[in-house]
């Protein structure tokens, strides 16, 4: 199947197009909401170590969230990517710490930053549904990571997305790991069981 014939690729492309068209005021609003809701989620779940993603292109801005979590005494981390289809590792990082470009050309913590294992993860996505399924960027890193972490301990996963990225149903497969929450600029969604 060619990438253009893949339903996930088509849904991803459409959702990213809608996301790219959002006004700057909404982006600023979501960054503030993400900060307050994210800190509240970490407190509610007693999370000691929290990871988020370094925002690229037009992704929601997680930097204020990471800063507020660190100020609240939480250990904060960013993912480090390996080969396609492998689990991420996480290294301690907070805004202002040095980064270098990783394999996917995304800023990552320096190699000498301590490795951490998060118990709360803020996960990037291109599209989502209310069942907690997501379409990422196609490398499989987060599905592998969530499966690995869930096999070791209780964790909480929060998809971070603008409401325009919601679709009726993500075509999910057995290896796809559902999210515990989806946080948008307007609501905190607790996916319903199917």
The pLDDT mean sits at 93
Uncertain spans, ≥5 residues at pLDDT below 50?
1-5
Distance between the termini: 28 Å
DSSP summary: helix tally: 4
Strand order of the largest sheet: 6-3-2-1-7-10-11-12
CATH fold call = Rossmann fold
Order of helices and strands: HHEHEEEEEEEEHEEE
CATH level-1 class: Alpha Beta
Examine the secondary-structure arrangement and name the CATH architecture.
3-Layer(aba) Sandwich
Q: What does the largest sheet look like?
A: 8 strands, mixed
Strand content: 15-25%
Total count of domains: 1
Helix content: 25-40%
Shape: globular
- Return Rg in Å: 16 Å
How many E strands? 12
CATH superfamily: NagB/RpiA/CoA transferase-like
- Secondary-structure class: alpha/beta
Describe this structure in words.
With 194 residues, the protein is α/β, with parallel strands linked by helices. The chain has a single domain, classed as 3-Layer(aba) Sandwich (Rossmann fold). It contains four helices and twelve strands, in the order H-H-E-H-E-E-E-E-E-E-E-E-H-E-E-E. It has helices spanning 7-20, 24-45, 63-71, 141-152; strands at residues 49-51, 75-80, 89-92, 99-101, 107-109, 115-116, 120-124, 127-128, 134-135, 156-160, 181-183, 188-189. The chain has an eight-stranded mixed sheet with strand order 6-3-2-1-7-10-11-12, sandwiched between helices. Strand 4 (99-101) and strand 5 (107-109) form a beta hairpin. Helix 2 packs parallel to helix 3. The longest helix has 22 residues, at 24-45. The radius of gyration is 16 Å and the shape is globular.
């Amino acid at each position: 199947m060619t990438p253009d014939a893949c339903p996930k690729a088509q849904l991803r492309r459409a959702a990213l197009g809608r996301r790219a068209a959002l006004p700057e005021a909404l982006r600023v609003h979501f960054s503030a909401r993400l900060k307050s809701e994210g800190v509240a989620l970490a407190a509610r779940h007693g999370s000691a170590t929290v990871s988020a993603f370094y925002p690229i292109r037009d992704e929601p801005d997680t930097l204020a969230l990471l800063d507020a979590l660190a100020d609240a005494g939480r250990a904060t981390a960013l993912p480090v990517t390996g080969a396609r289809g492998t689990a991420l590792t996480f290294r301690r990082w907070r805004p202002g710490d040095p980064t270098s470009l990783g394999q996917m050309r995304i800023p990552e913590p320096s190699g000498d930053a301590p490795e951490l294992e998060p118990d709360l993860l803020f996960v990037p996505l291109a599209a989502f549904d209310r069942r907690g399924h997501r379409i990422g960027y196609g490398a499989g890193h987060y599905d592998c990571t969530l499966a690995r972490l869930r096999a070791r301990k209780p964790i909480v996963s929060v998809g971070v997305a603008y409401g325009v990225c919601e679709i009726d149903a993500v075509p999910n497969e057995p290896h796809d790991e559902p999210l515990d929450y989806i946080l948008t600029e307007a609501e905190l969604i607790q996916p319903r069981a199917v």
